[in-house]
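[INFO] parsing input record for DUF2290 domain-containing protein
[DEBUG] input buffer:
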Amino acid sequence: MPAARTLKEQIENFSSFLVEEDLAVAVSPVLLHNDESQVSWHRRDPDRKFLETREHHSITNWKSWARNGVFTVMLFDGALLQIAFEVRDEVIVGHRLAYVPCPYQDADQVLMQLGLDDFIEYYEAVGLASARLETAVRFDYDPRAAKLGHPASHLTLNSSDVRIACVGPVSLAQFVRFVFGHFYPGLQRVRDYFETLPKPGHFSPSITSLEASEMHLAWDIG
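[DEBUG] output buffer:
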């Protein structure tokens, strides 16, 4: 399993690739926290609360995250990638891997023309007529919080109460492939980049027998 510094470098390389290919309009510095055990984005205002509203995906949260740099990468269409890992003894013990689509229509065209601040003001003036209903997709891994109804590794979408069990933790490469393979399947240059990403290595399954007896997400984890 990669150490935190290795993960930091991999995230930075991926962010740089997206910028070079004009697929990202903003990136946040990748930092190490808590004795270099956590890898995450740099929050411009660490005192500001993470969620403006408890709704799973809302215009309010997206605007707050976009304005305050609560993301690893902002893609060309305003979607946010939030990539954070926690590593202990070179073993991933936690992660938040989220794809947060922009809640506005035609964002890819308007964002490139106006820039972020004017972009948000423009859509605030337009109002809900421009709203786009798409859910955020988030893979969480937190074995310490695991309990009945809250799998150690799970996929959340549509509602914060939805936690679909996953077989185990998700690597950076697997998350990138999932996002771009499903939401941007036409971007061949990103698909080519997948081949340069390091293999995920071995992960131990975290799913319980009870969770595995129900519908869940499973893949080859090595």
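[INFO] The chain has a mean pLDDT of 87.
[INFO] shutting down worker
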